[in-house]
Design brief:
Blueprint lengths: L27 H70 L5 H9 L15 H8 L4
């Protein structure tokens, strides 16, 4: 009798057909929001690269200055060593000049004065000693 017709498949959602309307353009902020992480990393890299270049330039200028200062320090240290030895000699001479025990000796050195009671002793070699030192016999 009545035969049943097979059921027709019904679409769950009707297919949308373009109506010819244009979509509203996205705002500038939404478009930028998609690229924000990339721009942030790029800016960080650029700033860090610039700072690295500036730091290397500063080091390039400082190295010759440090070398010159080191050379000057060595020269000054050498001069200090020479002056310290000179100062030690001057201190010794100063203490000698103001030592009351050595005043007579200093006076004799500077003026040639000799005490009348003092006798000059001259050492001479005996002729036999001279010949013995040269290997000849008397």
């Amino acid at each position: 009798m009545y035969a049943e017709a097979p059921p027709r498949p019904t679409p769950s959602r009707p297919l949308a057909k373009p109506h010819g309307r244009r979509q509203r353009p996205q705002s500038v902020w939404r478009r930028l929001a998609k690229h924000t992480p990339l721009m942030e990393v790029s800016v960080r890299l650029a700033v860090n690269s610039f700072l690295a270049v500036v730091a290397l330039g500063a080091l390039g200028r400082l190295v010759p200055y440090i070398q010159a200062q080191t050379q000057q320090l060595h020269v000054v240290n050498d001069q200090v060593t020479v002056l310290e030895s000179s100062t030690a000699e001057l201190k010794a001479d100063f203490s000698r000049h103001f030592d009351p025990a050595q005043s007579k000796r200093i006076m004799q050195e500077q003026t040639g004065y000799k005490v009348p009671t003092e006798r000059q002793v001259v050492w001479t070699q005996d002729q036999s000693e001279i010949k013995a030192s040269y290997g000849t016999s008397p």
